[in-house]
Write a structure and sequence with these properties.
4 helices; Glutaredoxin; two-stranded antiparallel sheet; disordered N terminus; 157 residues; globular
Length: 157
């Protein structure tokens, strides 16, 4: 059966596909320009990175994701010291964010605007955003770092 009007005929599968596409494009969430946008470079298959991204979205950030297979090159391009490395690298407001940094630390960074290159949570501490494993949580620090590679404790968790 064809759906028809005076002007054209549409096969049912094309009609339903067009209807679904119209709904999805009209119903898809749009980035809120009043919220900061975080650009994230991560491996396309990293699940903990995806959880961290959801943590950012749940805390009011827009997020753009860049699938990347050579994260070492990304970290080098943004000047992340090797000792601070983790599984993803991000940028927001002119700052570099490395690893599983809590959204509250990023919000503080953007509000205070300290003279640093960025902040990082080195490694992948259990209990940090995206690395939750039940009630288990190890203490960890968010470190700030400068262009010269100097680090300081920015927050303790």
């Amino acid at each position: 059966m064809l759906y028809s009007t005076r002007f054209f005929r549409i096969p049912p599968h094309r009609f339903l596909a067009a209807l679904l596409l119209a709904c999805l494009s009209g119903c898809a969430p749009k980035a809120d320009p009043s919220k900061p946008t975080v650009e994230v470079w991560k491996s396309p298959t990293c699940q903990c990175c995806s959880k961290w991204i959801q943590h950012l979205r749940d805390n009011g950030f827009n997020v753009n994701i860049h699938g990347e297979t050579d994260l070492d090159a990304v970290k080098a391009r943004f000047g992340v010291p090797a000792a601070l490395g983790s599984c993803h690298t991000a940028q927001v407001g002119g700052y570099v964010i490395e690893g599983h940094v809590p959204a509250e630390d990023i919000k503080r960074l953007l509000a205070e605007k300290p003279p640093v290159k960025g902040i990082a949570v080195p490694g992948m501490p259990v209990g940090s955003p995206g690395m939750e494993q039940g009630s288990e949580k190890e203490p960890y620090e968010t470190l700030s770092f400068t262009q010269a590679g100097e680090t300081a404790v920015y927050a303790r968790h």
